[in-house]
Amino acid sequence: MRSEYRSSIRSKTLIRNALLSLMAEKPFDKITITDVVNRADINRGTFYAHYGSTLEVLQKIQSDATNELRTIFESMDYKNFFNDSEKTLKRISEFLSKDFEYYKMLIMIDGGKSFVASWKDNLVNFFSGISFLNSQGGENNEKYTAINFVINGVADAYLDILLGKSKLTLEEAPTALSTIVKRVMTPYL
């Protein structure tokens, strides 16, 4: 039983890595299951034992990454995030540093733009749902805009780091970004 489980995990990992590496070479819609199984060095039956299509593999990759990031945010003390975001941002940096090249490839692929947009939307929705920021009154739109600005800015800063467009490193990001988060959000706390 255990060896079957390990074999299943190994096969899924090979399939996902093969798809990502192929997506770095050509558009997603040009990748066939044959391409994936050849790159992963597995047979078609193994592929179909786990996935029905290449789209299903991509959706699983994106879903897993989104769920891991969501877990980080849901486990935090959200009431203190905007006062002291460095702790959470350190967790994000650690998460990304565990497999930097994998996440870099994930955002660089064709479908990565929709993944990034979905991830940002989930974060903005998570934070905009926090009750202490949702007081009644005219500040609601301003608060939502500030949250949107901060979350999108933080996400874009991490994307720039992954893509090599930033002078900031993953290690420096939590301190630098938490300072900015606090400055922007202080009027709303």
UniProtKB/TrEMBL annotation:
Keyword DNA-binding included in the entry's annotation: yes
Pfam families named among the record's database cross-references: TetR_N
Gene3D superfamilies per UniProt: Tetracycline Repressor, domain 2 (1.10.357.10)
A Gene Ontology molecular function term of the record: DNA binding
Boundaries of every HTH tetR-type domain copy: 9-69
Keywords linked to the UniProt accession: DNA-binding
PANTHER family on file: ACREF/ENVCD OPERON REPRESSOR-RELATED, TETR-FAMILY TRANSCRIPTIONAL REGULATOR
Protein name, entry field: TetR family transcriptional regulator
